[in-house]
Amino acid sequence: MPSPETGEQRAGPPETTAPSGGSWTFLSNHAHVLLCLADDPDQTLPAIARRVGITTRGVQLVLADLIAGGYVERTKVGRRNHYRVNPDGHLRHPMEAHHRVADLITALGASRSD
Predict the structure, then answer these.
(1) What values do phi and psi take at 21, rounded to 5?
(2) For the region Disordered, what residue ranges are annotated (predicted)?
C-alpha cells in the first residue's frame, strides 16, 4: 500500500504470526535499522526499508537519529554510502543503559532475510 506521506510503496512485516495475534514487536525501528546495518553496512535505504517494513523516508529519519546519537557513521564511497555501527554506544533507555550496542547485536544476531 502506498504511504500517504511519500507515495512510496510500504513493505509489510515478515510473514509471521505472533502468538497473541497482535501487530506489535519488541524492538523499535531504530533497533531494526541498526541490526540491518550491522548485518550489511553497504545496504541501500530501500533494501533496509523492505527488511524493516517502513518507508525509505522512515529509514532516512531513523538513520539521522542514529548518526546524530553517535551510533552509526556514514561514509560516502563513490555514489553509495557505507555505514559503520559503533559497537561501544550504550543503549538509551535507563533499563538497558548498562548494555552496549555490541551486546544487542550479539544477542539478536544479524541475519540476512533478503
Answers:
(1) 80, 5
(2) 1-23
